[in-house]
Amino acid sequence: MEASSSAAEKHNIYCTVCTEVFRSPRFLPCHHSFCLSCLEKLANKHGNVITCPNCRKPANLPPGGVKNLQRNFYLSEEELEFARSAGSDAMCPVHPELGVTLHCSQCDLNLCSMCKTAYHEGHVVEELSQLATRSKEAIGRELRRLEDYIRSLTEKTQMFQGNEKRARQARAKVHEQIEARHEEVVTMAGKHRDQALKELQEMSDGLEKDLGTVTKRVQEELNSLQQLQARAQRALSSSACNTEVLQVEREMTRGGRIKRVRDLEAGLPDTSYCPVLSSNVNDPQENIKRFIGSPVRQKVVNVSRIGRCGDGECHEVHAVREKENGIVEVFYGVSGDDFSKEKGVWFLPNGSKGQETEYKRRVSCVGHKSHIYRWTDSSARTFGSKGDRMFRIYQFPAGHCVIQSMELRQERGTEKCCARETLMRPKVRRIHNFDSNTGAIVRPTALNLDRNRYLLIGCGDGSVLRCLVKVFDM
Asked: Strands (DSSP E) along 186-315, which ranges?
């Protein structure tokens, strides 16, 4: 090993896998060192040929496995133990006998006391521990945002993985359709069958490649964020190195990582496609190609089931919304104009269902907070928007209607909903309840947007669905 390599190896006493001081370090053939336990984890995952985490070169393990690799003889166990027991502050490169305890804001450098006197007199200098404390506070704030992004990308990763599986299943189904139709007209359809299967092969390969590429991008960014999350959590511990705390804080607040995640999310497709068979079947003897059909890409709408509410006849969803804390709130009752059995229930993000609340009158959601409006009579239909505004359609006894805006007011410590200006006077004779159909057909009876502008759908059978396609923000 060259002198420069050995010096660099000796200077670096931290494993780049676990980011801690080496424990029983072992050389790979490329002369990079890692903890014995870290290499064992890689070997358990990849077998006898592992990839160096630093230079990405493949390394063949000797007989007997990782434990028979050459130990890093440049680093004695006493030196490593001293580094672990001496704390985590770095030593001054100019005065090796002194620890780094100060930070110069003007030069953005970590200093020892002698460097401050010799080179940074008159500069704004503060205790490194105080700066690290503020950095920990910044890390704590950014960590919460980071966890939200990780949760979002985790959901998207699972969604794209599901799309890949459905695309493969749809490919097999279409393949069976093509083969089945070919058997019916085998004497006439041989040529077109081969062409159709070729088109399916090319299209499916392209679809699966595209889906795999998107999933890989999201997974790689997710892995990167999770690694940063682990480092951030270590940085918040009492034993964290101040310089490491600063480095983590820089990466989280100044490295452009959040912008990169936002750009990644903005560039992700909202829709996916699966191959289906398009055909116009008339007389197979006259048009073999139309009978067998051709593979085409069909848009897939991802719908997840949040839960189901109600029992017996009391299960039709009348209003639904997602609150700021992620809880989905549902109001439901019987079909028609009888609101005496109106109830409410909520679902947590993990799908668990809360206790029911009886309202005994129709209610409307207002925004993403806890505001609701109780309908006072059957002559008015009051609907909340996805923001903090409401509108109502009111029918006078004479039969004519008006559409008015509504607002929430505080009167004597109580929140009250009041009508404001009249917006229009539609020429209708009677207000018809949109959910008055008493049939058993499962149909959408309530719509709203969640916090991420995905569509929430309440159904006549009590089901609550989330359509994972963003709706234009009206």
From this structure: 272-278, 294-300, 303-308
343, 314 contact by CB (below 8 A): yes
Angle at 135 between CA 132 and CA 138, to 5 degrees: 160
Query: What are 83-96's pLDDT values in tens digits?
Result: 766 554 567 777 77
- Rg, C-alpha atoms of the chain: 32
User: What residues contact residue 244 under an 8 Å CB cut-off, 6+ apart?
Assistant: 19, 88, 231, 234, 235
Burial of residue 474 (CB within 10 Å: 0-12, 13-18, 19+) is: exposed
**Which pTM does this prediction carry?**
0.37
Six token digits for residue 219:
């997974």
Residue 179 three-state SS: helix
pLDDT, tens only, 104-144: 888 888 888 888 888 888 898 898 878 888 888 888 888 88
Cβ density class 230-244: b for 16+ within 10 Å, e for less:
ebbebbbeeebbbbb
Half-sphere exposure of 203 (CA within 13 A, CB side): 21
| DSSP strand pairing (454-459 vs 316-322) | unpaired
